[in-house]
Each structure stands twice: as structure tokens, then as C-alpha cells.
Description:
Blueprint: E1 33-38, E2 46-50, E3 53-57, E4 65-67, H1 69-72, E5 82-84, E6 90-93, E7 98-101, E8 109-110, E9 119-124, E10 132-136, E11 143-148, E12 156-162, E13 166-172, E14 180-186, E15 189-195, E16 203-206, E17 216-223, E18 231-237, E19 240-246, E20 254-259, E21 263-268, E22 275-279, E23 282-286, E24 292-299, E25 303-307, E26 310-314, E27 324-327, E28 335-338, H2 354-370, H3 407-425, H4 429-442, E29 454-455, E30 481-486, E31 491-496, E32 509-512, E33 523-528, E34 534-539, E35 560-567, E36 573-581, E37 583-588, E38 594-599, H5 602-610, E39 619-626, E40 631-640, E41 642-647, E42 653-658, E43 662-667, E44 675-679, E45 694-699, E46 706-710, E47 715-719, E48 732-733, E49 742-743, E50 749-754, E51 759-764, E52 773-776, E53 785-790, E54 796-801, E55 810-815, E56 820-826, E57 831-837
Antiparallel strand pairs: 1-2, 2-3, 3-4, 5-6, 6-7, 7-8, 9-10, 10-11, 11-12, 13-14, 14-15, 15-16, 17-18, 18-19, 19-20, 21-22, 22-23, 23-24, 25-26, 26-27, 27-28, 29-40, 30-31, 30-57, 31-32, 33-34, 34-35, 35-36, 37-38, 38-39, 39-40, 41-42, 42-43, 43-44, 45-46, 46-47, 47-48, 49-50, 50-51, 51-52, ...
Amino acid sequence: MKKTSVLLSWRLPLLLSLWAAPAGAHWGMPDEASSISVRSGHEDDWIMGDASGALISRDHGTTWRWICPEGMGIAIWRPERYFWLSGGAILAATGSALVRSDDSGCTWTPHGFFKDTWVTSLAVHPADERLLYVSTGRPSLSNGLYRSEDGGESWLQALAPTPGSQYSAIRVAASDPLRVYASGQDAEGQFLVRSDDGGRAWTRLPQPLTGFKLPYDLVLLRVSDSSPDVLWAKISAQGRDSLLKSTDGGATLTPVMDTYERISSVEASPDGRTVWVSTTTRLFRSLDEGPFTELAEPNGNACALRFNGRLYGCGPGWIGGWALARSEDEGTTWEPLFKLGDVQGAHLCPASTPVQQRCPTLWPQLATLFGAPEPDGGVAPRPDAGPAEPPSASDGCAAAPGLMPGAWLMLAVLGRRRARLRVKRGIGAGALLALVSLVAVLGGCGASDAEGPLQVPELEYGIGAPWPAPAPLPPVGPAGRLIITNNLEDTLSLLDLEGMESPAWGELARLPVGLNPVELEGPHHTAVSPENDFYYVGISNYVPGSGSGPHGAHGSGKADGYCLKLDATTHAVVGSARVDPNPGDVILSADGRTLYQTHFDLLRIAEVARRGGTEAEMDARLAILDARTMTRTAMVPVCPAPHAVRLSLDGKRAYVACWSDEVAIVDLERADHPVQRVKVADNVGTAVVPIHQPYALTVSPTTGAVWVSSLASRAVQYLDPETLTMDPARTVWLPGAPMFGAFTSDGRTLFMPYQSVDSIAVIDVAHPEAAPGEIPLAASGCLNVHQLMLTPDERHALAVCEGDHLSPGTLHVVSLEERRVVKTVQVGLFPDSVALLGRRP
């Protein structure tokens, strides 16, 4: 039966979109540099890629300013590098689009020729900037190589697209610009292609890579400046990256280095005898074609550029003291040139340009992360400018929802947003002023955080109804109702599971959620009570525009978060509990009495590292809440940036995924809740420089075994619930970052969604060493799958995909019998969880 749609048409106007790593890229901290480029023939002009956009200098690196991703229009994508041509144009392949600026970074435009595919790489002829090459690599589409002879204005097909092909990179040989290489993969495996005539004719060079088990993601990194026959590439397999070298024009590739970290780039001396390899955390060097050794610096993030006889390197910015440094001895020692705290503000551009319209307002939020001055052109100084340290939740004095960083920010953007708010929310000027007053009041001291329960006072608004009342919804049907949190527009998408296979099936309603209708609060994950009378939503209160990571700016909030309790019939907030900044996951005990909420506080890690603190100071807390009264019964320090939380089958332990390459195990029976931390592997990093980055957990319903999804190592790792130790023999390696999976009720099959490829791995847990089956999602429009759940009858899986954080995300219905997507529905911006609300008796 066709449902009557009561979909609310308004959408919360965004201050900005979030900046996150693209599919397949490094999950970074919020302030990591990723590339360095110098304008050809104009050595005063520099541009650095950064996790929060780009940094630009017009005075040979003396001063730097920020270009926000919102001004560039690149959403979640992170360019591999920028090319600043001598004529002034800046071009970049973002992984999705080919973007170009002709006014020194103030206005950016995607090229329409590539609107239906993804541009994965860009190469420029070393002597003739009119000749450009790009590769495309959108999963499930036919991809090819393209050539421009007019500086990127128009494009010609260089190598015809072929079904199932994906190209990862393209490079031009500096010593012989007629030699062009590209890397890719298709159904037959990994391959290189080579052209000896400037891209008109191509030779396929298959790469069997027989020494690797299930290799994937062959990426061409560099061609030697001294010989067109020498090149370097990287391949991934079983949780390791290997650097490959060819000396015969790509006919064969030989491993020369391997690492547990993700290899991101290669730099080489003009004669090719000294080579630097950048990973997501370190820089390695080979002298005179010898073995690669790790350099002392940088540590935490790395990239390298050899320019005018010197080596320039980028570092993490938040440890080590520098974001850009210069070396006169090939990387043995470094002379710092600038740190992120030296960035002076948003890029100075004419008032009519997108960068000037968007970035200055956002700069104060990012400045806190950088430790940089906040006042900037177009933005008034903070009236209460002071230390960058956030107020601790333990002192009971913290910003309320929407204070990012305070009421002054609301006033700063009020003029720009007032008209839109009036239309979309029905809020007039007086109501807005009342809300600003509310924020000012809530910015003061709240209830103290003394030991024992904390009763959070009920919030009162300066107007009676800050949100318009939704139209009444029909009762929940026998199959149940889906609740999807839309992180970037403060809404919930509701869909009745009944009628799922109907062509007309879609959203029943999209409802507002949050505490403050003016600010973006970021609803993140939800839990439903066993009686289906209430559900609970985390409010993350992140700082928009502040960096990358699995949630873009999620993890960078300075205001305290909340856990909201909503009536499942009216969808009204009936209770709330204030918790720490950056709430992550939220779950409910089997009896519905207790809530557990983590805090994915990446900002805490960055701030402690920047001031040289200890890892213990980076620990965030697990909030334990009484679900009936919405009071905090305990706040347990667990580990740095905890995200997923799951309970043991008997409910006596909580398992928590920790960014610091650990799983924290919390004893819920003892009053003091002692915590045991288990490293997920023998090779582990730290909270500042993690190698694995545990993020999600899936617990077997029959054995209680915990399967840990680690983003960076792309591993699903096994924690034995009896011994509380990891079993590396049961690790499952995937070609993308695993997320939140789901088991069948018999515990035999684990369906694990993973990003980069955007697919579902079908894992036989009795034989984890076997190659998992695969159900592709990308062909159905999925980008960045986040969570998967099974329908009660286990005939279908429901996969939530984030999208690009600018356009709607998607929900995909997957037939488990047919192993294919049978239905796709658009939902809100950046959906990140799905839960089932059952029918009440």
C-alpha cells in the first residue's frame, strides 16, 4: 500500500560541509599536510594540501593562509597534489573531480567533462603545460585515460574506457615526456599501461604479482627524472603496503620495501639514487639504491618535495613543532619553516569569490585546532578571546549545544542565515534573538560533575516551539520502522520496513532532531528501547570545517555533547543528558535500563600532543547513563578517541574500539568499572600515530567473539571473549576500510561493509583465512558505506552510505539470496546509522 508522505521539506542550512578523507585515502588527524607544490616559474607561490583544505603562500613560504574545502567545492575529497601552472591556473584531481582555479585559489570550478566519473590523478607535461593527462577510476563504471592539449580547457580520449577498469594514477617521464604510464585494475587483475608517443597508443603491461596474497590497489607513484624506464609503484595486500620498482619500463615490478603503514608518495633525487617514501606516519629514505631506513623526522605524518637542490617535508603540525621544514642533508636533519599555529587566517580574496564568502567565517573554528590567531579579514575578533583549551566537562562549565565556540559565532552568521531560517523553519528575527539569548545563558555553568548521578536540567527556549510540529505519522507497522540519523542536516529519516520491495517505497518522513534549531549539532548513531517506546540519539556538537577523519569534523568538537531521549510515537525530546565533547557510539543494554555512550575525541589527542602531554591525558570517557531518568551514573576513562561500544552476551563487559590501536574492556559488574586494554596486533602505533585505527565492533550472537574493524590497516581482527586476547590467525584483510557489520543469527556469517571499494564482504567466520565473498554496492550509487544491519527475517541487508556530504546519502536494500542491491533510496545528508523501531504491543 502506498504511504502518505509527510516528508518535511526544510533542510538545516549548513555553515559548511565537512572535510574528510576520500574513499581509499588516509584517515588523518584534523590538521595534517599531505602535499607540497610550487608554482612553475614563480618560486614565491606555494600551496600545500591539508586535511582541512589547502594552505597557500605568496611570499616563498614566509606566511600562509587557509583555503577551506567549502570555498573549493570539493566536499569530502582530498587531492593527491596541486599543480600551480606558470600562467597562474591551479589544478587538482580530487579523486572525484578535476577542479581548477584561475584567480590564485579564490574561485574553483570542476570541469564538466568529468561530471559522470571520478578523476583519480592528474599529470602535467614537464616542458609544455598545455599538455595534461588524467585518469579516471569510478567503481562499477568504464574508466579510461584522457589528454588535453590546451591546458585543460578541453579533453580528448587517450585510452578508451573499458568495462570494469579503474585507473588509479597517471605519470609523465620527465626525461622523455613522450613516455606516459598509468596504473589500474580490472577483472583480470592489476596492470600498468605505457605510451611511448605522448598518449596516442598504449601497451598493456599485466602485473601478476604472484608473491602477494590477494593484492589490490596498484598505484603508480613516480617515474625517475633520470630514466623513463625506472618507476616506482605500490601494492597493498594482507594489511601491508609494498613499494615496487621497475627498471624495464614497467614490464616487471620488484618489491624493494614493505611496511604496515599506507605508502602515499615517492620523491627521488635527479639521478634516482636517493629515494624518499612517505607513509601516513613516517618518511623513509634509501641512499645509493640501498635499503630503506626510517628517518627521525617527521613523525606522525609525512610528505616530501625536492626543489632547487633542497628537500622540503611536511609534518603533522600538532607534534614535532612544524608543518613544513627544509633539509640540507637529504632528510637527516630539518630546519622548521612554519607550524600550523602560524597560519594567519583565511585566504585573502575579493569579496565576490566563494573562498572569501565562506572561509573567513569558518576560520575561528579551525584556528582553535591549529593554535592560530582567530581574528581575520571579514570576521570580528572574539570578544572573550583567551586560551585555546576547552572547558573540561569535569568542571561543570561547558558550552551548550551550538556554542561553537559561542553565541558570538551565531551572531556572526545570523545575517547570512536569517532569510533562509525564516523560510525553512518559520523562525523570525525575534525568535532568533531569543535563541541567541538561550545560547548565551547555556554557555555558563551547568550542573557539577561530582561523583554520582548528575541530573541534567531541562532546557527552556525563549520561544514556545523552536521547531515546527511534524504532521502526525501512521502507527508503526508489524514489520517495524527504520530510523536513520542524518549527521549533516540534523534530521532523522523514517522508513517503514513494510512494503520495502514496492517500487514506491521510500522515506515516510524526515524529522528535525537536536536541541538548537540554529546550529548544526550532528546527530550520530541511535539506539531503540526493547519496548519500542523510546529511542536515543547522540548529539556530537563538532566544529564544522575542522578536518578529516571518519566523520570529517566529527571528533573535533569543543562543546559538550548530549544524549537525547525521544518519544517513539511523537518523536519529541523527553529527556537529555549532557556528556563529554564528541559523542561517538550509543547503545542500550538488553533490558533497556542503561545507556553507554563513547566520545570520539580526536581534538583531545591533538591538543594533548601539541603541548607535549602524556597518552593517559588523551583518554576520553565512556558515559554510563540511566535510561529512565537520563542521569549519568558513571563517567569511565577508557582510552584515546573511543568510538564503537558493544556489550558481551551476558552484559557484564563493555568492549570499546580505541583509536590508539586497542580494544578497551570495561568491567560493568564492579562499581569502579576497571578497564583492561588489549592491543589489536603485535605491530601497533600510538594514539597520535596509530597503525590500525580500530573504529567499529561486531559481536557474534552465538560465541560472543568480538570482530574489530580497523580503518587504516583495513583489517577485521578477532578478540577471543574467553581469553580476552587477539588471535591474529583469524584476521580478515579487506581492500578497504571495514565499518559496522552484522551477523546472521546462527553466528556463521559476518556481513562486513567496507569503504574505498564500497562493497560488503561475506565472511565465513569458521574459515576466516578463505577469501570472503563480495556484494558490490558502488554500482548502485553507494559512496562511503557506514553501517549494515539485517532485516529480522535475514532475507535482506540494509546498508547506509554517507555519500559525498554535499548531496543526499543513500540506503541500499540488498537481497542476501541474490547477493545484489535490489532497492536504493535517498535519505539525508551524511547518514551514519540505521536502527529498527519495532511495533509496540
